[in-house]
Amino acid sequence: MFEYFPKLDKFFTKLSNPILYFLHKRMGFTPNNLSVIAAFFGFWGIFFVLTEKSTLAFIFIIIVYQAFDFLDGQVAKKYNLITKKGKILDLAIDKTIEFSLIFSFVFLKKVDLKIAVITSLSLLILIIVKEKSKFDFGLKKIGIFSGYLFGFNLAFLLVLLFNVIGIIGAFFILGSKNKTKTKPL
To answer: How confident is the model over 109-158, as pLDDT tens digits?
Structure first.
């Protein structure tokens, strides 16, 4: 998750190792099981958005979703369980939750449709460049949470900014990789 930030990667790896051991070795969860659990929490959070029942419950549930989304990849890496099917499942769940969150706020008339569409397009571009660069700036859902503090149109513009930074970072990484592959004449 933090390949380009080695200190953060080391910190979160060390912090998560006992949890990974417990989930995989003791409980028998596979990365795909954890992805499905993450999806459950993600959709449950979207339910709270659409029913406007509790902002605090929504934030708590989405944080749990984020934790499981983090842990599925960590279990896959630590126990060498990375599969193409797992990558596709994780990507499908992540993007379904993100797009559902975006358009839930549109449905509730908390976000302008144009801003939501532009933000969604930036997510699609990021999906494409992330596959090659392995870089995603992240922070999309945290940006969405900030809508409760600053208003959702501003929050989605913030998410758009995070996506643009991620796209630029991905292109920078791709450019650096291409420079090292080319040989001088």
So the answer is: 999 999 999 989 988 988 888 777 777 666 677 777 788 888 889 988 88
Distant-in-sequence, close-in-space partners of 167: CB < 8 Å, separation ≥ 6: 122, 125, 126, 129
CA 183 to chain centre: 36
Q: Classify residue 183 as exposed, middle or buried by CB count within 10 Å of its CB (0-12, 13-18, 19+).
A: exposed
Q: 141, 183 in Cβ contact below 8 A?
A: no
Contacts of 14 (CB under 8 A, 6+ apart): none
Query: Cα–Cα distance between 94 and 100 in angstroms, integer?
Result: 10
Asked if residue 26 lies in contact with residue 75, where contact means CB atoms within 8 angstroms, the answer is no
CB 115 within 8 A of CB 98: no
Dist. CA 68–CA 58, nearest whole Å: 15
Q: What is the pTM of this model?
A: 0.81
The amino acid sitting at 151 is G
| 73 neighbors 1 (Cβ within 8 angstroms) | yes
Candidates 130, 118, 127; CA nearest to 160 is 118
Nearest to 81 by CA among 18, 29, 144, 7: 29
Residues 6+ away with beta carbon under 8 Å from 134 = 3, 173
